[in-house]
């Protein structure tokens, strides 16, 4: 029913629809994004959809063009303001009126201008960055989203990584843009050594800057703190590595390496909040199974008739119980199936491992003498009545003692 009117609309507005996707949405940003976030989004997406990386992929090419268009409009304060207020139509009119001479429109121009014309194919890659983040085991059980901050090297957004206040870089006069100079050393009269060295004026860059950018002091990069989202999935293995592509240290000279986050388990501790005070906090995890040690008194182990309520990692209760007369041997292990860890990304949805309860029996080491005597009397009485032979069931060979007389 809904299909017909939708089709008609699409037919009418095809031409507009191509250009009408929200620019912020295209770049994966919201309206409050700052200049740095816009540049960053463009840096990432333009590489991802570049036709060199996606040969014969029309959809990628289309995306590449759209992303360039969005970046071009949002990166410029004036056009961004117009877009925010009047949308695509406003920007179009503004561009047609010729009041934006700085605009490029050719997505490849935008791309090579952004990357300084040096980044196509075979570009150098920066080092990967590795961090460890410790989260409580509860997070591995229930799943959790965290935010974390990392200080890293970022391209200076004030000068877009040129190091120059006016965006101008001049060819270095000393090395003629080569970045290298030949130096002659006299080793002995008439004997010279020629050495190629990095240019000391431009530091090997081949270009110099007259007016240094004040934000980065001409260094082209700054130290910045950036925030990331970490999603700990249910049942994720301890030590799992999550890759944040191209989020390593940035530099205009290379494609940023990856940020690798290793998610490790925090040591258990009694916390202050209610959910940090469950028995589950002290479960031990091995793969998909959880382990717990439960203490029983002699009477409980022997006579039964006891109950324990274990509060699990999410607060639900696992009841352990024995009826009267049910014996638990010391060291016995009870498998409570389905009360272990969720199995990470299981095909059938949420499936859980087991909880293994290890029973430790604590014998009384202090007894009132009257009580001790009573126990002994009871045992003696029953031993005589049943005629218990302690060797009988031991499986040991009978001692060969013969009466020689
Ligand atoms: Zn700068
Ligand atoms: Zn130089």
Automatic annotation (TrEMBL):
Molecular function terms from GO: ATP binding; Hsp70 protein binding; unfolded protein binding; zinc ion binding
Keyword DNA damage set for record: no
Positions of CR-type zinc fingers: 143-225
InterPro entries: DnaJ, DnaJ_C, DnaJ_domain, DnaJ_domain_CS, DNJA1/2-like, HSP40/DnaJ_pept-bd, HSP_DnaJ_Cys-rich_dom, HSP_DnaJ_Cys-rich_dom_sf
Pfam families attached to this UniProt entry: DnaJ, DnaJ_C, DnaJ_CXXCXGXG
Biological-process GO terms, alphabetical: protein folding; response to heat
Region forming the signal peptide: 1-19
Location of region: Disordered: 89-127
Annotated J domain residues: 22-87
Keyword Zinc-finger part of the UniProt annotation: yes
Domain CR-type: from-to ranges: 143-225
Keywords: Chaperone, Metal-binding, Repeat, Signal, Zinc, Zinc-finger
Protein's name according to its UniProt entry: DnaJ-related protein scj1
Organism: Recurvomyces mirabilis
